[in-house]
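Lab notes, practical 5.
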Amino acid sequence: MFHVSLKLSGIMMAKSVIKQLNYYLDLRFLIKFIALFLVLYYVNIFFVQLTLPGKWHNDFFVEHFNYIGWLTGSLTHTANLITHTLGLDTIVESNDTLALAQGPRVVVRWQCIGLGIISFWLAFILAQDMRLKRKIFLGLGGVLVVYELLQDRAVGLCPRSKPQAMEKKAYPYRRYQSPRPF
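Output from the prediction step:
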């Protein structure tokens, strides 16, 4: 009898602690957020492993579901369009490389496309208690803002002067003539 009452008092104490914690923290939100973030992040990492050469490489995923390549390609091509409107002579050498004509280049790797930030944002929005319409609006809006910031970063890494002008000035990008991830 004494053992049962200790068990019941332990359960009631645990419920009291959870209730007090829930007063300061929204535990339901926190658990949903952490679970969603871990799922989204590690699904992205799994897809990266499927598309990269190595142990888990899968040609079917590379051909049909390579959203990593789509994102890097769209970032480089959009950054190329932006740099052309700014007056820089850039070219897209490959799906992941943006280069000044006969000059430095910016290489966009899978680590640079913001998969962790996008996973964090989507988990944060999906864990909220709000209507589905608002979740879709905020989720897509946040992903587009992150995408725009990534494009701006790629454009900002392209030097602001022509290769001939780099010879005359001490320009910080001059020493980086080989491809580099940003």
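Observations recorded by the TA: The beta strands are 90-94, 97-100, 105-107. Residues 48 and 68 are 7 Å apart (CA to CA).
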